[in-house]
Amino acid sequence: MKARGTLIQRTLLTETSVIAHWCTREHGIIRTVAKGARRPKSPFAGRLDLFYRCELEIVTARKGDLHVLSDLQVSDPRIGLRRNYLQILAASYFVKWISLAAEEGTPLTEMADLLERALDYLSEKDVDLRAVLHFEKRLATLLGVVELGIEPNRCLARHVGRVPNHREELIDRLRGSSDSNALEP
Asked: For 115-146, what is each residue's pLDDT tens digit?
């Protein structure tokens, strides 16, 4: 199967292989194993980094939900996301909300589009409080969990069970001093 997706999580599987979690429009959140990806001469070397948008070729698993990544082409590495810690923190925060809200293997057309737009925004512009609040409001609206008089992040938390851990740090840094874009964590 072919898909277009954003790498949202990577975990080690073996000494040389990794599990890559992708957010795709067509298939939702999917997990693939990239066999041998950690070998120096792997065809995946340098192409499995977080937030990369890729064109994927996947061999569907016969049993279970761990598919095999057979090939990928990076279509947008979103280099601008890596310009400072705050950009990466915001991107991680957006990805965490999608991961909490999405059901694995279920198409996520609108949520995947929201994540793509958010990551593209962060790649081009510095994150601000307005962008974070907009993302939360839009996601709550997509999920149909908006309640009058309640902040969208609280509505989302009621729906998925919790707020991502790093929201507090992100909001504090955005409300903090003008040097909040420093590279220090």
From this structure: 999 999 999 999 999 999 999 999 999 999 99
The bridge status of strand 28-34 relative to strand 18-24 is antiparallel
Q: Quick one: 85 and 154 in the same domain?
A: yes
Same domain, 68 and 90: no
Give residue 31's domain range.
Answer: 2-76
Q: What is the pLDDT of residue 124?
A: 97
For the entire predicted model, the pTM comes to: 0.90
pLDDT, tens digit, 9 for 90 and up, residues 93-111: 999 999 999 987 788 899 9
Q: Answer yes or no: are the C-beta atoms of 69 and 111 closer than 8 Å.
A: no
Residue 180 lies in a domain: no
At 129, the amino acid letter reads: L
Any idea which residue has 């590495």 for tokens? 77
> Which three-class secondary structure state does DSSP give residue 101?
helix
The CA-CA-CA angle for residues 166, 171, 174, to 5°, reads 125
Are residues 72 and 105 part of one domain? no
